[in-house]
Amino acid sequence: MSFVASKNIESTLITALTRLLGADNVTVDGPLIDLFSCDFGEEPKARIGLIARPAERSLVAEVLKLAHAADCPVCVRGGGMSYTQGYLPDRPGTLLLDMSALNRIVEINLKDLYITVETGCTWQQIYHVLDGTGYHLPFGGTMSGERATIGGALANNATAVKRGQVVDDLLGLEVVLADGRVIQTGSRATGRPVQPMRNYGPDLTGLFLNDAGIMGVKTQATFRLERRPRGTEFAAFGFQDTNALIDAMCALAREGLATENMAFGAYHNQMFAAEPRPTRTDVSALVAAVKAMAGNRFSAYRLLAKMARPGGMKFLGKWKHTLVVSTDGYTPSIARTQMREIKRIAKSHQGAPLPPTLAIAMRALPFHPVERLIVGTGTKNNTLPSNRFTSLSHAHALYEAAENFLLDNRALMQRHGLTYTILFACVSNNMFGIEPIIYWRDSMTPLRAHILSQKRRDELLAIPEDLTTRGIVVGLRRRMVARLADIPGAHYQIGKYYNYKGDLADAATLGAICQAKLTLDKSGILNPGGLWDMNDDYCANPQGAEIPH
Question: Which CATH number, 3.30.43.10, 3.30.360.10, 3.10.50.40, 3.20.20.70, labels domain 6-98?
Answer without folding.
Answer: 3.30.43.10
